[in-house]
Amino acid sequence: DLFIEHHVGPVPELKVGTDSELLATLDEKSLSTWNDWTVAVPARIEKAREAAVKLLEPKAVRVQPKSVTLRTPADVDAYLDDLRAEIMQHVDNQTPVMI
Predict the structure, then answer these.
(1) The pTM is what?
(2) What is d(CA 25, CA 36) in angstroms, rounded to the nearest whole number?
(3) What residues does 2 pair with on adjacent strands?
(4) Is the peptide bond preceding residue 65 cis, with omega within 30 degrees of 0?
(5) Burial of 44 per CB tally in 10 Å (0-12, 13-18, 19+)
(6) DSSP 8-class letter at 88
(7) Which of these, 55, 64, 48, lies nearest to 98 by C-alpha position?
(8) Please, which pLDDT band fits residue 84 given cuts at 50, 70 and 90?
(9) What string of DSSP letters covers 17-73?
């Protein structure tokens, strides 16, 4: 199961029905643990999603848009042109692309 393999689930039941239950649930873990989970879960979900795509589309490649600062419409146009060119290289070779 992809969720278990990528440490996304199963999600433990959280008791939050009353203020007391909510506080007890929050007190079970340190703030740093809650913070770690908040940061880790989206990354784990993304890895599970990539694995699922690879199962369905084994030749799929991942294109990671570059992190940049865009200041002008020309910057945006240039960035999107470059990204489109990178994606189209794969599409032209009939390779599915994950973003």
Answers:
(1) 0.54
(2) 16
(3) none
(4) no
(5) middle
(6) H
(7) 64
(8) very high
(9) SSHHHHHHHHHTS-HHHHHHHHHHHHHHHHHHHHHHHHHH-TT-EE--PPP----SH
